[in-house]
Amino acid sequence: MPDGARAVTPNTPRLLLLAPPSSYRTGPYLRAAERLGVEAVLASTGKHPLVSGSGGLNLSLPDLDDSLRTILDVADNGPGFSAVVATDDLTVDLAGLVAHELGLPGNDPGAARISRRKDLARQRLAEAGLPVPGHRVVDLREPLGPQVDGLPFPCVIKPLALSGSRGVIRADDRDSLERLRTRVAAITSTAPFPDERDHALLETYLPGAEVALEGMLTDGQLEVLALFDKPEPLTGPYFEESYYVTPSRHPEAVQERVAERVSQACAAYGLRHGPVHAEARLHDGDAWLLELAARTIGGECARLLSFGAGVGLEELVIARALGRPLQASRDAGAGGVLMLPTPRAGVLRRVEGVLEASRVPGIEAVEISVREGYELVPLPEGESYLGFVFARTDSPQEAEEALRAAHAHLRVVTAPVLMSGAVAVGES
Fold first, then answer.
1. Quick one: DSSP state of residue 46?
2. How many other CB atoms sit within 10 Å of the CB of residue 218?
3. Contact at 8 Å (CB) between 286 and 130?
4. b vs e for 107-120, b when ≥16 Cβ sit within 10 Å of the residue's Cβ?
């Protein structure tokens, strides 16, 4: 039994954790379940999924029907499950289906799907009378010119369901948009669900600052856990996220408006339970929803949030899913995270300056997620971060300054990838 693990008894709550095989979130959720004394059963893709407790399930993701049958068969022939949690976008649809079939707290399957699909989300927001940019779905197999009549430029083209700004690109005119068609089509061709591979969402570009809201829904009521500022301007052509800082420095009225719009969007989608992560643009005196996902913040960023007595975001999600009255009292102070951008394509040789960056006052940790020999792919094709830098300070301004100072110490050394797949000798 791992150090600190608690014995599993017949009365131990049993959590079904749905996770893609490459999720950043699996480890934190498993550790949180262990700290709470909960048996976690990991359902993922692979012959030997990692587990905490008595076993794991091998699913056929993204095949929802087959995956659901596997889970229901286990539930029918075993002790069953007390709660279900999805770690990432790929598994929120399945979590909704499982919750519905097993009578567990969760979101309606249709609401979960809307939260993952940008086109369905835009339609639902418009029907609810919420501010939505002009938009339409385009067929990437056909020339885009005839499909964009009446839509002003600049505009942003984005896959229907991929996350992390992958495939999201700004186009300033028809010619540049048409040149992007094959590039975006190549990215969407890897989408997990077939109906998301040949189409994309096109919408008018909204200037303005971006914020991110982390929240928790209980019976449809939104509890705001944190509001993050994104101090780097996200103007395109790509929209790589980097700095997140909390608490927000925007005026209280702006923060309240963001929370109001997120709450209204949750109601429009039909979301009622569990974590939500929203992205919004502050434009024309309002908060315009860009994303609203039925999951927690991505990557390792949840480490930034703690709620007293060592309670992290994952503990809070699991406890609420189990109906435990765990309170979300934010720790005092400020914090920030830098999702290290991938500066160029190439094979990683090393990241220099990590020790110097970690010594910057206010920096809590500098973690490089990839190792030497890993092929780096920047946005819009890339889908992983180089690493994360965490800061904890007395004020958000100090957190941002610490992150920028640490970032200035880091130098990414790469070698080019040759056409044959070999790595060149030179570095850059």
1. S
2. 13
3. no
4. bbbebbbbbbbbbb
Cis peptide before 133 (omega within 30 of 0): no
Instruction: Please state which of the four CATH numbers 3.40.50.1110, 3.30.470.20, 3.40.190.10, 3.30.1490.20 is assigned to the domain occupying 333-428.
Output: 3.30.470.20
pTM for the structure as a whole: 0.91
> If phi over 0 gives left and psi between -120 and 50 gives alpha, with beta otherwise, what is residue 167?
left
Q: How far apart are CA 403 and CA 412, in angstroms?
A: 16
What is the rounded distance in angstroms from the CA atom of residue 154 to the CA atom of residue 145? 14
Residue 16: CA count within 13 A, CB half-sphere: 31
Architecture of the domain whose range is 14-114: 3-Layer(aba) Sandwich (3.40)
Q: How far apart are CA 95 and CA 107, in angstroms?
A: 8
CA separation for the pair 131, 289 (Å, rounded)? 8
Higher pLDDT, 417 or 34: 34
Q: What is the DSSP letter of 418?
A: P
Strands 14-18 and 39-44: parallel
pLDDT above 80: residue 50: no
The C-alpha atoms of residue 262 and residue 125 are separated, in whole angstroms, by 11
Mean pLDDT over each residue of the chain, to the nearest integer: 90
Token pair belonging to 222: 């939104």
State the Cα–Cα distance between residues 102 and 300, nearest whole angstrom: 30
